[in-house]
Amino acid sequence: GVAELPPLDAGMNPAQREAVRYLDGPCLVLAGAGSGKTRVITQKIAYLLRDCGYAARNVAALTFTNKAAKEMAERVKAVASASAIKGLTISTFHSLGVRMLREEARNVGLKPQFSILAADDALGIVQDLIATTDKGRLRAVQHTISLWKNALVEPEAAERLAATEGEREAARAYRSYNATLRAYQSVDFDDLIRLPAQLLERDAEARERWQSRLRYLLVDEYQDTNACQYRLVQLLTGPRAMFTAVGDDDQAIYAWRGATIENLARLTTDYPQLKVIKLEQNYRSAQCILHAANSVIANNPKLFEKKLWSDLGAGDPIAVVPMDDDEAEAESVAMRISAARFERQGHWRDYAILYRSNHQARVFEQALRNLKIPYMVSGGQSFFDKAEVRDVLAYLRLVANDDDDPAFIRAVTTPKRGVGQATLEQLGTYAGERQVSLFAALFEAGLEQRLAARQLGPLREFGQFIQRMQWRAGRGAAHAGAVTSSEPAGPILDDLLQAIGYERYLYDTFDERGAQTRWQTVLDLVGWLKRKAEEDGMSLIDLVQHVALITMLEKNDDEDPDLVRLSTLHASKGLEYPHVFLVGVEEGLLPHLGKDDEEGDPAKAAESFEARIQEERRLMYVGITRAQRSLHVTWCKKRRRGREDVPREPSRFIKEMGLAADAPADAMPGLSARERLGRLKALLGKGG
Ligand code: ATP
Ligand code: MG
User: How far is the CA of 37 from the centre of ligand 1 (A)?
Assistant: First the structure.
């Protein structure tokens, strides 16, 4: 019971305590990294439940990533009893959006089993609308539409706003894109927030329903919300405005996704009664780390004055180590981690390797493998973006919602089952004329006039197979007139995988090793789905509906948390690690300087260039402030670009940290990287 839980005020300074106890109106905690903002949220949840009589189902906390949601749930479990938190919502904006849309589907003109399209499915729709196969151009259109959606700009307005040829192209596609999504009974990721916001905007009844359900809202990482999320928070909390937002303008790193720091300032004007609380003590990092972070960020213009200090002691000096190339960098980092863990008898999970871009991960993975160091990659290509995962999920999506035409096409053609492009085109034309989904079209008698029996055969066989699965999953009533019965997800999954011959297909398509890895991924997926089904009592249909939002992080965390973390800087936000290796700290990589896309107006180009540097600097600040006890910075003197070695310069941010580009703190001086590696391998070999 409550008695065994730590007293609420323990481990909080007066400013934090004030933020936790403040319930007279909206509250904003604005403070630097590691100052305990997230802790304020978890403690405040406990305070609401334990001391203020809030029911868990009336409280919701919103985070930026699934990983952050999970971490927060763990932190809350430490301060509140299990029974007290049943029904509590700790989720991302997107998961909350899904929940709202499922419940309110009919009010927004969707059926409850609508599907959620990931970016690459939605790209197929864009491709249908824009006659080009240029992936870059398609992605640009998709991105522009996404930014409009996140800024709550509707197609009419977009047409007026479009200034460049690219934007005009996107604006022309925008309306049809939405219509197509609707026709497929699907939504994209942006809709998960946009549609609930729109619903609450126009439907007073729905608004009251949600406002009385969510009596208190807490939002972490507020600086990275976009206009749409801002609006949703505003509508969910209504005139009572019972919410606490916490954030740090210096850590705003999602402008490219439409997030806007202005939301912080806007709160103060939209809510004149807003209580603003600042936190100044950092409880995370040793002083020299914090000092470096502060001096980097001091180069950015300040929106809000912030002081940040720590009394955790000076700590080890920060090492800055130049490397010959990326392989040497990876080897050296892997070796250091191995040696340090060995010396300290610590955990693998105390070490994180943080980098700017996903493509940097590969060499580090190889180096870690060579030394048999267990690791996990987060924030990289999501597990759910892998082709084999998307293949299998296409079947499941189709079982859950047979209006999902993109899923139909993917499933019916992977593995190949004698359904050719010509057949599909005819099916598509017919479905278009009849205004039905591809799946529905294939059972219509009219199709028999269009297709030869040898074309129709495999199509219908496929359709019946999906129907059988639907029936077993509890969606059969509509087709068979039978009573709805639902089998557990496990056996259905096994039979489905068996029936489609996917393993066989992999071995026919890829070389032995490629097929093996891919098949293992599929088995991981199925195993994970089964566990999820059992633990959370989800049916296959529920599972499929949630899967689009779940990242692999959760899976890995469940299995073996004692792993070295490899992560992009973006994905490391909000987290902390005793020992951090910040790698690839070079001009052109961090700051990453994409090609200058601003044409014409040189003033505008200069401004946006400066704006980009500032965003990169915030990213650097985020990276440095993940470290608790030690920080290693590395950069490469050259890097391979295609077949060429390109010389590299240390990042300007190293100087801004107040450090020299070569300031090694060497644990094993006098040996070359390779010699040390050899010695270490010998050491590890002896140990077993
Ligand atoms: P970020 O900006 O990186 O998200 P944050 O402001 O959310 O950081 P937290 O993650 O909440 O900071 O806290 C940083 C660390 O300091 C955590 O390990 C937390 O448990 C610890 N901490 C926070 N407040 C206190 C306190 N009053 N006493 C002791 N430790 C604290
Ligand atoms: Mg935080």
Answer: 6
* Contact yes or no for 279/13 (Cβ under 8 A): yes
Taking the C-alpha atoms of residue 469 and residue 402, their distance in angstroms, rounded to an integer, is 11
Does residue 413 carry a catalytic annotation? no
Return the pLDDT at 483.
47
Average model confidence (pLDDT) for the chain? Answer: 86
**Can you tell me the distance from the alpha carbon of 170 to that of 155, in angstroms, rounded to the nearest whole number?**
10
| Type of residue found at 499 | A
* Residue with CA closest to ligand 1 atom 16: 283
Q: Give residue 2's pLDDT.
A: 45
Give the type of residue at 139.
R
Using left for φ > 0, alpha for ψ between -120 and 50, and beta otherwise, residue 313 falls in left
| Check: complex ipTM more than 0.85 | yes
CA–CA gap between residue 628 and residue 349 (Å, rounded): 13
Q: Give the tens place of pLDDT for each residue, 126-174.
A: 887 887 777 788 888 999 999 999 999 999 999 998 888 889 989 999 9
Q: CA 625, CA 433: separation in Å to the nearest integer?
A: 58
What residue's CA is closest to ligand 1, atom 30? Answer: 283
Q: What is the Cα–Cα distance from 651 to 672, expressed in whole angstroms? A: 24
- pTM > 0.80: yes or no: no
Could you tell me the distance, in angstroms and rounded to a whole number, from the CA of residue 68 to the centre of ligand 2? 9
| Best mutation site among 28, 30, 284 for ligand 1 pocket (most ligand atoms within 8 Å of CB) | 284
Our answer to whether residue 626 is catalytic in this structure is: yes
Contact by Cβ (8 Å): 328, 656: no
Task: Dig out the tokens for 52 from the structure.
Answer: 């203020």
Write the Ramachandran bin of 273: left for phi over 0, alpha for psi from -120 to 50, otherwise beta: alpha
* Secondary structure letter of residue 220 according to DSSP: S
| Residue among 44, 410, 565, 626 flagged as catalytic | 626
Cβ atoms of 450 and 428 closer than 8 Å = no
pLDDT for 225-259, tens place per residue?
A: 999 999 999 999 999 999 999 999 999 888 877 88
Cα angle, residue 251 at apex, residues 246 and 252 outer, rounded to 5°: 90
Tens of pLDDT, residue by residue over 530-573, are 887 887 778 888 788 777 555 433 444 444 578 999 999 998 99
Q: Which of 180, 251, 423, 470 is catalytic?
A: 251
**Which residue bears the tokens 């505003």?**
234
Do 146 and 170 touch, CB atoms closer than 8 A? no
List beta partners, residue 636: 323
Q: What is the pLDDT of residue 72?
A: 83
266 catalytically annotated = no
